[in-house]
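Subgroup meeting minutes
Present: P.N., E.W., G.H.
Scribe: E.W.

1. P.N. recapped why we're keeping a running log of single-chain structure predictions: easier to compare across weeks, and new members can see raw inputs and outputs side by side.
2. G.H. added today's entry (205 aa).
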Amino acid sequence: MSKQRFLRELPRIGLTPDYETATSGRRETLIFLREHYPKVILEAGGIPLPLPITGSRKAIQAMLDSLHGILVSGGDFDIHPKYYGEKPLAVLGKIKETRTEFELDLITLALKKELPILGVCGGAQAINVALGGTLYQDIPSQIPDAIAHQQGELREVGGHQVEVARGADVAPAGAGLDTIVFTGLRPEETVTVTNGNEKRDDQGL
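Output recorded in log:
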């Protein structure tokens, strides 16, 4: 088998990037990804392909036609509540509507093509919103007794437990377990879950 044919047959996984405006020089808009996203896909035998952020559904459809799956990455921003039918609270964090609209369109079209989709952190919330779910905009103010869900110092070891609903289809690392440990890095959290496996943390969130 030729190298070219071998590369064509490896699963191509599209990655959603983040964007920021450069703080020096020409102040261009930069798109970027944390290194661990493409790294783990390569380690699993896939080819990670960062996707350009666009509002063109035609372009998104063309991207999806060449992919075997999608990973919707996390990011340091909130999904605007208008996308799940609510008004924003005063404590709402940074908004990136261009990225959010791209990801919601990407998820919607990928679901129509029945492509596998994995959402990490805010990416999981985007999937939930695309499916008609809702979010807590700010856990500390909406659930005063909740434990801290922004646990940056514990990101490598896990911050609190998540209960896996009976029969849920989880990743191999958590298969067969009643609880798994994860790290919370966001003040937002899912309220209504649609068309997905149910997982709740130790406070029912």
